[in-house]
């Protein structure tokens, strides 16, 4: 999985929007630096840490969440209208 910001801190790059299709078997093509939730609900994600993967379910309202994500799971995700910023 590509991570455009892996070695950058405080980048001023505005990023690109990508539609997210949750999957239980595939990581996202690019790591997200922000998750946008259109319609709130549960979102099961795996973060981008190198040492260990952290997977958890969060109940999120619609809004923008500045979190690094490498997978959005289909199982456990009820929120819709998911968009990422890479």
What this model shows, in words?
By secondary structure, the protein is mainly beta. It contains no helices and 7 strands. It has strands spanning 17-19, 34-39, 41-46, 55-60, 63-65, 71-72, 80-85. Strands 1-7-2-5 form a 4-stranded antiparallel β-sheet, with no helix packed on it. The protein has a 3-stranded antiparallel β-sheet with strand order 4-3-6, with no helix packed on it. The protein starts with 16 loop residues before the first strand and ends with a strand. The model has no long low-confidence stretch (mean pLDDT 87).
What distinguishing features does this structure have?
mainly beta, 4-stranded antiparallel β-sheet, single chain
Which term fits the overall shape?
Answer: globular
The order of strands across the largest sheet is 1-7-2-5
How are helices and strands ordered from N to C?
EEEEEEE
Measured as a percent range, the helix fraction is under 10%
Give unreliable regions as ranges. none
Count of runs of 4 or more consecutive helical residues: 0
Q: What does the main sheet amount to?
A: 4 strands, antiparallel
Q: Report the average pLDDT across residues.
A: 87
- Total strand count, please? 7
Structural class: mainly beta
Query: Beta-strand level of the residues, as a percent range?
Result: 35-45%
Ends distance: 12 Å
């Amino acid at each position: 999985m590509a991570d455009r910001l892996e070695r950058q801190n405080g980048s001023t790059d505005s990023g690109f929007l990508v539609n997210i299709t949750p999957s239980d078997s595939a990581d996202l093509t690019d790591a997200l630096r922000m998750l946008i939730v259109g319609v709130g609900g549960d979102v099961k994600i795996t973060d981008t840490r190198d040492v260990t993967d952290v997977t958890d379910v969060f109940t999120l309202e619609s809004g923008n969440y500045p979190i690094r994500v490498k997978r959005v799971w289909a199982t456990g995700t009820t929120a819709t209208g998911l968009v990422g910023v890479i």
